[in-house]
């Protein structure tokens, strides 16, 4: 895909975030372009989830700014942030389904909350998104009847049912076997191709990362230490930060 066509969709500019004396980011700066899949890598506890949460206003940086299109998220009221969040789906590390509701009701829930649809339209939307995640005709199942990988895909169906512009995938393949991992990677690509979604994908899974990434970014030393197009990764010199991370030789 062509990157850098037009202004960035999302911009982190000099973001600093700390919890008490625990400084997570001192100067986080990165642009995310419309329609790209940006893979975010980094050691455990380096702030990848914090970065995503700052973007949707669940956490507030101490300084710096975060932009969505030409709107500054970090300068918005909570009500304004909630409006923006409508366009940004956050696929959490653990897909938390409502255990007492059917698959149908789980996916219908955000549709009812945000859109004015008839029951027929909701039914169609649920079926469409179940098909998208490769789980057609499972509407009447209860979460307890599903495997971990299936639950995860239902969580995804729920997240994408609102047809977001941006999807934040926080370790979407952690704990999945290779075939479910591949399914998720294919789904990320499908969201990009069919819905023109922009994705930020936090993952440790190099197979999934290499399948979906347009660019790869590394969180290290309290900032985005490196970002480059996927094709350039192979040509990185041995000992470069990102190569060392991928090869497991970077001191974290
Ligand atoms: N709400 C919070 N309050 C205090 N500390 C937090 C909070 N959220 C995250 N942290 C801390 O921020 C650091 C980065 O967390 P996180 O973004 O979850 O890491 P990861 O890169 O593994 O996703 C960790 O040290 C974590 O303990
Ligand atoms: Mg995390």
Question: How much of the sequence is in beta strands?
Answer: 15-25%
CATH second-level architecture of the largest domain: 3-Layer(aba) Sandwich
Q: State the name of the first-level CATH class of the largest domain.
A: Alpha Beta
Topology-level CATH name of the largest domain: Rossmann fold
Main sheet specs? 6 strands, mixed
Mean pLDDT: 92
**What's the SSE pattern?**
EEEHEEHEHHHEHEHEEHH
CATH superfamily of the largest domain: P-loop containing nucleotide triphosphate hydrolases
How many β-strand runs?
10
What is the general shape?
globular
Total domains = 2
What is the fold's blueprint, element by element?
Elements: E1 10-19, E2 22-32, E3 37-42, H1 48-55, E4 63-68, E5 71-72, H2 78-85, E6 88-91, H3 103-114, H4 119-132, H5 148-160, E7 166-170, H6 178-195, E8 198-202, H7 206-212, E9 215-220, E10 223-229, H8 230-233, H9 241-247
Parallel strand pairs: 3-8, 3-9, 6-7, 7-8
Antiparallel strand pairs: 1-2, 1-4, 4-5, 9-10
Helix pairs in contact: 3-4, 3-5, 4-5, 6-7
This protein binds adenosine-5'-diphosphate and magnesium ion (MG).
Adenosine-5'-diphosphate (ADP) is lined by residues 19, 22, 24, 42, 44-50.
